[in-house]
Amino acid sequence: MMIALALAGAELAHGRNGEARAMPALTFGELGGLDIDGDGAISRDEFMVLNTERFEALDLNRDRKVSAAEMRTHRLALGGGEGSVQAAATDQRAIDLADTNQDAQLDHSEFAWLGAQVFTALDHNNDGFLSLRDR
Ligand SMILES: [Ca+2]
Ligand SMILES: [Ca+2]
Ligand SMILES: [Ca+2]
Questions:
Q1: Is the backbone of residue 52 left (phi > 0), alpha (psi -120 to 50) or beta?
Q2: Rounded to the nearest whole angstrom, what is the distance from the C-alpha of residue 44 to the centroid of ligand 3?
Q3: CATH of residue 73
Q4: Neighbour count for residue 86 (Cβ, 10 Å)
């Protein structure tokens, strides 16, 4: 399942149906690491819990805001060569999209909003769960 979900994430990143879309704060690949009850479905609540964990992991200086620099530092720390120009541009798009108060950083409510948009975008069949049926 993890491989299939990772593929779904890659598909989304390239703009399913040609839509311009910010890279999700969470990817399907990461969601595949969730210990869920075996049916492969992730509820909106589970997703939002993971989204908050992601926020806290990204907020390296603990000021309750995530900057583009923190996103980049976090990604580089994880390795995998994702410190590319494209990845940085994606971080900036995500911030631009969700930065309601325009301080160029995402606070928790902005990050949660972004997560909710991502969930909705990934839940293709609108059943409130992310699963292989959404492929
Ligand atoms: Ca911060
Ligand atoms: Ca902000
Ligand atoms: Ca679904």
A1: alpha
A2: 10
A3: 1.10.238.10
A4: 10
Please give the residue range of the domain that contains residue 72: 2-134
What is the distance in A from the centroid of ligand 3 to the CA of 34?
A: 16
* Whole-angstrom distance, CA of residue 132 vs CA of residue 135: 6
Each as own residue / partner, the long-range contacts of residues 126-129 (CB below 8 Å, 24 or more positions apart, any chain) are: 128/43, 128/44, 129/41, 129/42, 129/43, 129/44
Q: Which two tokens stand for residue 106?
A: 């995402």
pLDDT at 71 over 80: yes
- Per the document, the length of the chain is 135
Q: How far apart are CA 135 and CA 125, in angstroms?
A: 9
Q: Which ligand does the CA of 95 lie closest to? A: 2
Number of domains the chain contains: 1
> Does the pLDDT of residue 48 top 50, yes or no?
yes
What's the mean per-residue pLDDT of the chain?
77
Rounded to the nearest angstrom, the distance between the alpha carbon of 56 and the centre of ligand 1 is: 9
